[in-house]
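Q: Structure tokens for this one, please.
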Amino acid sequence: MTAELQVLSAGYADERVASTVVLIRDEGHAIVVDPGMVSDRAKILDPLRNLGVDPTDVGEVVFSHHHPDHTLNAALFERARFHDFWAIYQDDTWTDRPADGFQVSPSVRLMATPGHTAEDITTLVETEHGLIACTHLWWSAQGPAVDPTAEGQAALDRSRAALLELRPALIVPGHGEPFRPEALDAR
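A: Here is the predicted structure, written as tokens:
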């Protein structure tokens, strides 16, 4: 497995909100997950620059879902293809395809994980350290266990169980620092 993952900006959801923004590099592919709300665009652009990645180098952007706090800064990546639950968008082309099982790059694939919204997807990244899941199934390691804005808590619980069956080494939540799945048991 060749993919490497760096958190560009760890999100939060309290009085203010910011999404966790991730860069994945995999065999020549630069992929950004959830380039949403941050307090300053430099929170995305500076870490990219420090990693030697220009925004024009980003070829793929994945939206876990369509809430603005996860999509707002998509325009920073003018050459990218954009992936959501049902299509790929680039320039003026819309290509329908289901996300579930879609291979974005050799070590990165998408998984349908409805619950927070009916259209949520998780980005699965195979790395030398194991599977990493970028997902909004959890806001952060601290919770909430019951998502107060979920469109379907039962679907969310099923999606959480399906993801945990894959035994991810690390979970990158929608609004927090990455955590090991064992942290969920400690709550």
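A few notes: Residues 153-165 form the longest helix (13 residues). The first strand starts at residue 4 and ends at 9.
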